Amino acid sequence: MKKVRFTPKFSIKKGDNVKVIAGNDKGKTGIVKEVLREKSRIVVEGVAMISKHQKPDAKNPEGGIIKREAAIHISNVMLVDPKSGQATRVSVSRDGNTVKRISKKSGEAI
């Protein structure tokens, strides 16, 4: 039998403004650069910075230490309400074929 893979659905998408609610970077906010659905992780701009040692190659002939963002678990962030600027939970409403994300704090569409 063929194994069926389940990809989870998240209320956070690329380009959203999120706030970190747990971990070393708790309290920081940033824009989502990438969503890794299979691993339930996201990459947030300016959060969870790591130092990567890069060997010299054609693109980067000098090599050296490069700072970049690491992926963090999606449960450690909350979406920021655009109206109030605070972290909020999200509900989903469907009107026919359209799907809207709604902020629990303000009740407005995100």
- In what range is the share of β-strand residues? 35-45%
List how many beta strands DSSP finds. 10
| Overall shape | globular
What radius of gyration results from the CA coordinates?
A: 17 Å
N-to-C span: 41 Å
| Structural class assignment | mainly beta
Could you list the spans in which at least 5 consecutive residues all have pLDDT below 50? none
The strand order across the widest sheet is 6-3-2-1-7-8
The CATH C-level class name of the domain at 17-81: Mainly Beta
Layout of helices and strands, plus pairs?
Layout (H helix, E strand, L loop, with lengths): L16 E4 L8 E8 L4 E4 L4 E6 L9 E6 L1 E3 L3 E4 L6 E2 L1 E6 L2 E6 L7
Antiparallel strand pairs: 1-2, 1-7, 2-3, 3-6, 4-5, 7-8, 9-10
Task: Please give a handful of descriptors for the protein shown.
globular; SH3 type barrels; 110 residues; 45% strand; mainly beta; two-stranded antiparallel ribbon
Q: Can you walk me through this structure?
A:
It is a single chain. By secondary structure, the chain is mostly beta strands. The protein has a domain of 65 residues: SH3 type barrels (Roll). It contains no helices and ten strands. The strands form three sheets. Strands 6-3-2-1-7-8 form a six-stranded antiparallel sheet, with no helix packed on it. A two-stranded antiparallel ribbon has the order 4-5. A hairpin with a 4-residue loop joins β2 and β3.
